[in-house]
Amino acid sequence: MTPDLLLKGGILLDPQSREMLEADVLIRDGRIARVAPEIPAEDVPVYDCADKLISPGWMDMHVHLREPGYEHKETIATGCRAAAFGGFTAVACMPNTDPPIHTRDVVEFIIERAAPLPVDVYPIACVSKHRAGKELTEMGDLADGGAVAFSDDGAPVQNSGLMRRALEYASMLDRPIINHMEDLSLGPKGHMNEGRVSARLGVPPVPALSEEIMIARDLLLAEYTGGHLHVAHISTARSVELVREARARGVPVTAEVCPHHFALTDEAVAETHFSTDTKMHPPLRTAEDVEAIKEGLRDGTIDAICTDHAPHASFEKEVEFIAAPFGILGLETAWGLIGRELIEPGVLPLAEAVRKLTVEPRRILRLPVPRIAEGEPACLTIFDATTRWTFEAQHIRSKSRNTPFVGAPMVGRAWAIYNKGHFVEAR
Q1: CB–CB of 284/193 below 8 Å?
Q2: In the predicted model, is pLDDT for residue 427 greater than 90?
Q3: What is the percent of the chain where pLDDT is above 90?
Q4: pTM of the model
Q5: Is residue 293 domain-shared with residue 243, that is, in the same domain?
Q6: How far is residue 241 from each of residues 153, 228, 303, 315, 330, measured CA to CA in Å?
Q7: Is 390 in the same domain as 296?
Q8: Backbone torsion region of residue 226, taken as left when φ is above 0, otherwise alpha when ψ lies between -120 and 50, otherwise beta
Q9: Are 27 and 79 in a shared domain?
């Protein structure tokens, strides 16, 4: 614990007003005691923030912590360690665990397990019991226990009637439904994006159409029910356009995107000679899709940036491409890829990129947004947007190692977080 700390000489960034101010921040007993241009050190430890930015703590609203049930891949503790290295003070964890997060006791287990850690953990509970798509969970009880949203992530809700009822119930509970957008009947055995690359490589494909048809269905259901639909890890140009059109006519929909979907294309599968670290779900798409995603971020169609952090043990990934599970790590590399792909090229201004990591995830999940103001709990991320560095295996804090970005150039680093009385440096 570090209840008292002086952050010296940083630039405070408010992602809501987009204002930037050079100031010191004094923390006492885990709360912001003073914000001023020059605060004497007196009796507290000092962290030099010269040439660094300080913002409200970042949130990743889509991660897989694997506990309970798959602790060989990740645990709540190791996932939070990776999150802190990446600059995140909060994460929302998906329910494909064992048992899945389909009963209140599992929700409460996760919250209790995360309580002493420096990263806040918010469980996302299942839409259907056992994620089987047949019977709704006790959504009210799950919400009372602390679930912030509902999703069968990785197991798309195929039944339209069930999805309608889920949206209706979630609306009464003021929670979003987060669907994994895929019509499984269109690519039941696919392993990469359907297109020229999959045809050349001879890999069974997943068509973009499978995502787009599911989004179109869910948008109509959200329009009909008034329930809040959140589109998980959007990945195709047409998907972005569907969301854009729906928002224009007032459909209650929000969307997120992962850095790997704007940093890589399906050519990475060929370029890495079938590295299973290029296999994720939804799959890497085309260059045209990447450009459409960047435009969706620019014009606000895509609200939030998340990682879909999906750790797998080495023995699971070190197999033939078709036999490997989907998913890669994301927490440690998110900001460096955002800086490289979005901020430096001018796709997003710095403040807007930070907004998509702070304000928007919490707005979607109905959580309070931290503020850098006297008397507020100190929930802060210390970072920059200019440091050039190379991500290496030594930077991985996850329990697993499955990332295609080892050896990749990054722009911008998270240096430390402060949250719940904990100061954690990313080193």
Answers
A1: yes
A2: no
A3: 98
A4: 0.97
A5: yes
A6: 22, 18, 14, 39, 25
A7: no
A8: left
A9: no
Evaluate if residue 262 carries a pLDDT over 90.
Answer: yes
Q: Answer whether residue 369 is part of any domain.
A: no
Task: Write down the mean pLDDT value for the chain.
Answer: 97
Active site residue: 152, 303, 308, 384, which one?
308
What's the pLDDT tens digit per position in 327-364?
999 999 999 999 999 999 999 999 999 999 999 999 99
> Is 303 annotated in the active site?
no
Which of 213, 216, 209, 214 shows the shortest CA–CA distance to 190? 209
Q: Which residues pair with 418 in a beta bridge?
A: 380, 423
pLDDT at 187: 82
CATH number where 378 lies: 2.30.40.10
Same-domain check for residues 316 and 399: no
Do residues 215 and 320 share a domain? Answer: yes
CATH number for the domain harbouring residue 319: 3.20.20.140
**Continuous segment of H or E residues that includes residue 6:** strand 5-13
Residues 406 and 421 in one domain: yes
- Alpha-carbon distance of 237 to 241, in angstroms, equals 6
Sign of CA dihedral 99, 105, 107, 113: negative
pLDDT at residue 282 in the model: 97
Whether 383 shows a pLDDT value over 90: the answer reads: yes
| Of 420, 418, 386, nearest in space to 84 by CA | 418
Domain that residue 72 falls in: 57-364
Residue 1: pLDDT band (50, 70, 90) is confident
- Say yes or no: 29 and 64 in one domain: no
